[in-house]
């Protein structure tokens, strides 16, 4: 029996069991026995993401690792994607949900599955939420870290409430402090309001000079096509694939409502767009921002204003390298390191475009849609 | 006028040009006051002579450049210092360019662009500048160069939080009175913070020791520690001694510290060189550590600077240490100048863009400034 083989629908119960044992659900260990509803959620998730995605390709399957008895002890989820490298079609394989059962053979199983994945027919292998262990395995097998795309930014919108939320996360176990933290909330609101009034250049979100409209799938396709000369490596979507992607992401309600806005100038010209998961009272997550080079500050101003108006304390996202200076000018803080974006390709031109920051590789093109919830 | 008689606008910088260039330098680049320089302005001619004609790697084939008008008046300058590097063990030449300046009334002449074009067509394998501003970046990219985005990131570790905040407040007009009131509280508040949050203010690791870093040891360690990088610097005793003497001269950055870190087996775990500014922001010149001792050497650096009163310490990102710096609670920002590169060698550019080059401030313009 070969230890590594393609993932088939019949494997879903075993892989679901492995997933919840290794990862838990929402970061917490699962109570045994697993409830019917959780089992169904797993089945729906694996079916939707790995068998019913619009790019499904039998030649690029997800992989399972089985021991000599046929029991599945490892899983590597794969989703094919399409991109264009200077207009040339490029097959991308996105890997996610890399799970190996703890035990003596963990390292061997992990390395073998990764090796099998990287030797597939795709032009580019990519993962963008890797931890340090995956990074070591990936690099050991000839892959590299896309360090530029492993930089994230955070923009504080309500600094004192953000600080208080960090404190309450740190002290959540100490119940005695909860009344104190509750009492602090109105004080923080007041401090944020005073700071915005007294130091408007640092703490207020000025009303943007540009206008925004709802960004539907058809319009986004037009935008993507209109901006496609912005970077050498560009995602390729059609109505079906983009519609599926946005619908799947919108279904991840744990991260908040999905806001999609297209930004245009007073003359009605499209100057950019953004998509983010809105978390009022928390940190929102940006999935994609694109802008004309000359208008990036206007688009970012609009994004921060929108997130602030909707009640976010902060917004975070992955750095779009070409906009590094604009993010810095808008007082974003950067963090570098895990989660890493890892890439592997035999095409030096492809690797170069990513290392130069000349690729649109936002969270839309990454593993975000492959999250369980 | 016959073609052969016309004065070429871009020509190599010669010692006869020093008075004109020094005058231009003083008017255009030193106008921000004495705090940004390490020497009195009377030393300018000597500085230009030493830095551009008597540096250890002087090469007539890659000279600094001046731009002159038809009457011979110099209206632009680009300083160039070439130095040897190794690309996967193969010797190459790197030209560091800095002090790009053009007379304001002549900027429409595109002198800056012409100077950069002339530089890029030189015999070196790589042109690099690591002190560029936003305008310089636009010109550099416009002439075919690229920005090394990874190496243009900086990190900062806050060492004395209260002092750090008070320094921030003191910068603005509105809040500077508050900073003055809070100032006497900084020392006790930071001491209390260090006592209450020992994990954040961890001490230098036990069994690690620090000693003065000398040129001989550095010369011995550099090839060893840069071995993993595809692009490495090459030094000899003369060049390294010259560079470090220059670095030590930059008193306006702070007091230059050179520290070697040894582990419990007395083996070299790493080293750091930085400009110490008690009460302010210290600046790292070079930080290197053995792969298995990065965290410990970082702890030594942070402790060294904190014990001597630094409120924070800042360095340019060396991509290999990205994770460790983040784990050690550094924050990253674009607070430093751009690192710009140009080469006709794709492999060389690729090495830099993916962060596989040993490029610290020691390899840049930091030691070559006035």
Overview of this structure, please?
The complex is a heterodimer of chains A (373) and B (370). Chain A is of the alpha+beta class. Chain A has 12 helices and 15 strands. In chain A, helix 5 (159-170) packs antiparallel against helix 6. Chain A is globular. Helix content of chain B is 33%, strand content 25%. Chain B has 2 domains: 3-150, Aminopeptidase (3-Layer(aba) Sandwich); 154-336 and 345-368, Gcn5-related N-acetyltransferase (GNAT) (Aminopeptidase). With 370 residues, chain B is of the alpha+beta class. Chain B has helices at 18-28, 44-53, 111-120, 134-142, 161-171, 176-182, 186-196, 215-225, 237-249, 294-307, 322-327, 346-353, and strands at residues 10-12, 65-68, 74-87, 90-102, 126-132, 146-147, 154-158, 209-212, 231-233, 255-262, 268-276, 281-289, 312-316, 331-333, 338-342. In chain B, helix 1 (18-28) packs across helix 2 (44-53), helix 5 packs antiparallel against helix 6 and helix 5 (161-171) packs antiparallel against helix 7. Chain A binds chain B through residues 132, 144, 147-148, 150-151, 198-199, 321, 324-325, 327-328, 333-338, 348, 351-352, 355-357, and chain B through 134, 146, 149-150, 152-153, 155, 172, 174-175, 317, 319, 322-323, 325-327, 331-335, 346, 349-350, 353-355.
Outline:
Chain A has helices at residues 12-23, 36-51, 106-118, 132-140, 159-170, 178-198, 200-203, 217-226, 239-250, 296-309, 324-329, 348-355, and strands at 4-6, 63-66, 72-85, 88-100, 124-130, 144-145, 151-156, 211-214, 233-235, 257-264, 270-278, 283-291, 314-318, 333-336, 340-344.
Name a few traits of the molecule:
heterodimer; A: 373 residues; alpha+beta; Aminopeptidase; 2 domains; seven-stranded mixed beta sheet; 37% helix; B: 370 residues; eight-stranded mixed beta sheet; 12 helices; globular
